[in-house]
Structure formats: C-alpha cells, structure tokens
Amino acid sequence: MLIKTVLNRLARFKGFVFGNVFFRKVEGEESVVVEIFPRKRSRPVCRECGRKGPRYDLQPVRTFQYLPLFDFKVFFLYAPRRVSCALHGVHVEALPWGSGKEHLTNDYKLFLGRWARRLSWSETARVFRTSWDSVYRAVSYMVDYGLNHRSLEGITQIGIDEIAVFRGHKYLTMVYQLNEGVRRLLWCGIDRKTDTLLSFFKEFGQERCALLEYVCTDMWAPFLDAIRQCAPQAKNILDRFHIMKKFGEAIDQIRREEHKAFKAEGQTVLEKSRWALLKRPENLTENQTARLADLLKLNIQSVKAYLLREDFQRFWEFKHASVAGRFLDSWCKRTMRTKLEPMKKVAKMLQNHKPLIMNWFEAKGTLSSGAVEGLNLKAKLTMRKSFGFRSTDSLKIALYHTLANLPDPPGTHGFS
Ligand SMILES: [Zn+2]
User: Fold this and answer.
1) Angle at 371 between CA 397 and CA 122, to 5 degrees
2) How far apart are the C-alpha atoms of 46 and 14, rounded to whole Å?
3) Residues 335, 344 contacting (CB under 8 angstroms)
C-alpha cells in the first residue's frame, strides 16, 4: 500500500494504474514487483505516430526493471497490448516508462547511466547487481538522447588531437570545442587519417565549418590537410604544448644515446638525469634542481640541447609577431650549426610550419593553449577507469558520456 503511494508520487503514467505490489523472485533475487494495468477503456498508443488505436491483442506478461527501493530491485509487471494502427499496422504499443523491446525502464537507465559517470561501468554493474551489458545499454540510451538534443550553435573554436587506444594498436581522433565556458568533446572517430577528420567535418556541416575561427592542432599532416579542405578560413594554430613536446622528445633521444655511450665507458654522468632535463625548471623538485645544477656544469650534448630548448621558451613571450618571427629564424640557424641531429629536426619542423606557428600570436588571449591537453587528459582517465571496454564502440560512448556535456533525458518526475 505504502509503496503504491510512493510510486504514485514518483511516476504517474497517463492511461495506466498500479495494481498489486508483492515480493517475488526475479532473476534469482527476491524483488519488489508492481503490477501495472491499462486504465479501463483506455486504448493503446501507436509508438510510430503517437495516435491511439484499437487493441489488437494482449502479449504475455513481461517485467521492466525500475529504480531500486531500499536494497530491493523493483520490477513492473505488465502485459503489453498490441495496437492496430491504421497507418502503421499491428505492433506493440508505446509504453511511457520505456521502449517495448527493452527490459530496463527509462528511469532506471537514467539512474544507472548517472552512476556510470561517477564509477566505472564494471563498478556500477557490481554495486547495483546488474550486468555490464545493462550499464552499457543505459549509457548508450543517455548518449543517444544527448547527441540528438545537444546544441551545436556558436562553435567558433575547436581543437583536434589523437589518443592511442587499445594499448597503442589504434588511434581515436578527438575533436573538442574550445570556446570559453563550453569546452567539451564534440566528436570522436576511429583512426587519425585525413578521412577520419573529413568525416567529422561532413557531419558537422558546411555552414558550421564556415563559422570556425580557430582550429588548434598538433603537426599531424593528415589533420592539417583536412582543415585546409573544409575550414580554409579558420586560423590553424599549432598548439604550444605540442610544439614543446617535440623539444622534449629530441632532448630525451639525445640524452638516451649519450647515456648509453657514457655507460659503455663505465661513466654514470647522466644517471637519473631524465626529469631534471625534461621538466621546466619551475616544476622541478629540490633534488632535481640540484641534479640539474650539476649537469649544467658539463659540456655535453644533452645539456646543449637542454639550453637550446630553454632559450626557445622566450619565443612565446614576445609581444610582436614580427620580432618573434625573427627570433625563430635565428634560433633555427644557430641550431642547424650544431651536431645535435634530433634538435636539428625540430628546427626544420619549425621552419616548415612557421606560418601556422605564427598564428599562435594572433590567437593569444583568445584561445587557452592548455585546453586541448586538459581535455585529452580527462579522456585518458575515462579510458583507464573503464577497463571493461571491449570495443571502440563502447569506448566512444563512454567518452561522449563523460566529456561531451550532453543534456540528460528527462526523468518521469525529474529526479536528479
Ligand atoms: Zn501509427
């Protein structure tokens, strides 16, 4: 009796009434079962057109899982009617608590899906004694709804990056919106080819592409290519973070080779030097700072490469693009005169991408340079948290679910 009162407060389904409430074993577990009946003389609704039609026949009684009560699972017990629609023929009626094919009610899917944002999918399944598959269906329901109901208005800044998935065997191309206050995942697709990004632009639509002002990327040529094709008016900006990452990679390569050579001679000069040389001085621990001070006294290649990078940091501080441009040229010239091959490669890359790098100065103050990196970090966290992903499909759904700020489907009574 009490439960029926609660249910009537929670969920009133037009045209239906709650019947008896009792305990019964469902799926091997003692559960609360609530009968539902259609109101007398009510007619079933066609799920295609939403119009009422005559009842054709009655289907066998089925269970629909609803929100848990205390620690009990709750199921609705209902015998769906088949409606005979003049337009759409005979089929199972529309049900206000869910789809006729699904065993989970919409409210329950919303409930599971919201938990799956906080916990991993496997944890969610464990806590609510349900299957991974139910959590998967719950999240897909929310993502489907969200993608169909989100607004794509006013997008002028996007960032594109790739992340390695499935232990580096595959890549996902990630497209983020970077506008102040609306940083979110817009799209993700398998692979990182020109075609991958082209399919985003196609879905995004020509009109929206034409509104793009800034596109922030790394130096991955297939991406640059797709942007030139679909959003030629947008300023393509090479992200500071990605450029400096190349410096880090070059220093590390030089350091590793040099360390190997030293070790072969029985010297430990470069022992424990990696982070001292790779991190920016302001991010070093006390020990690393001391280590760096020692290293800087040495006239070795790793240190020369390190000093070249630290010198290049000035580039980002210039106020005038023209001054910065001259600095970049002179830095490259100096570097090309050294014997530091990996650093020379960086210099060549800077020269080849100079116009795009210089775009950074135009976007300064408009575009937050760390935004893409921050979002990518979140994406990696989502992947780590959800070790249950067996397919790129479920992985994509999880990424949209946590990173796309999608609107939630409405609950029957607006619980949140
Ligand atoms: Zn119909």
Assistant:
1) 30
2) 15
3) yes
Q: How far apart are CA 117 and CA 167, in angstroms?
A: 23
| 20: CB partners within 8 A, 6+ apart | 34, 35
Average pLDDT over residues 87-109: 90
- Taking the CA atoms of 37, 39, 41 and 42 in sequence, report the sign of the dihedral they define: negative
pTM greater than the 0.90 cutoff: no
For residue 316 the two structure tokens come to 């980002």
CA of 56 to the centre of ligand 1 (A): 13
Tokens matching residue 89: 């023929």
Output the CA 48–ligand 1 centroid distance in Å: 5
Q: What is the CA radius of gyration of the chain?
A: 29
Structure tokens at 131: 């299957």
Per residue in 3-24, pLDDT tens?
788 787 777 788 999 999 999 9
Q: Which of 399, 394, 397 is nearest to 382 (CA)?
A: 399
Closest by CA to 105, choosing from 24, 10, 3, is: 10
Q: Which residue has the tokens 């679909």?
A: 230
pLDDT of 415 reads 46
Residue the block writes with tokens 């029985």:
266
Query: For residues 151 and 142, is the Cβ–Cβ distance under 8 A?
Result: no
Residues 384 and 164 sit within 8 Å (Cβ to Cβ): no
- Amino acid sitting at position 37: F
Tokens of 244: 């400096």
- Rounded to the nearest whole angstrom, what is the distance from the C-alpha of residue 99 to the centroid of ligand 1? 15
Is residue 101 helix, strand or coil?
coil
CA of 95 to the centre of ligand 1 (A): 14
Cα torsion 90, 92, 93, 98: sign: negative
Dig out the tokens for 29 from the structure. Answer: 């577990």
Do the bridges between strand 157-165 and strand 170-177 make them parallel or antiparallel, or are there none, so unpaired? antiparallel
Residue 244 φ then ψ, to 5°: -65, -25
Distance 39 CA to ligand 1 centre (A): 20
C-alpha span between 168 and 252 (Å, rounded): 21
CA separation for the pair 83, 243 (Å, rounded): 62
Q: How far apart are CA 398 and CA 400, in angstroms?
A: 6
End-to-end CA distance of the chain: 25
How many angstroms does the Cα of residue 92 sit away from the middle of ligand 1?
11
Q: What is the pLDDT of residues 165-203, one digit of tens each?
A: 877 778 999 999 999 889 999 999 999 999 999 999 999
317 DSSP assignment: G
Look at residue 383 and give its three-state secondary structure: helix
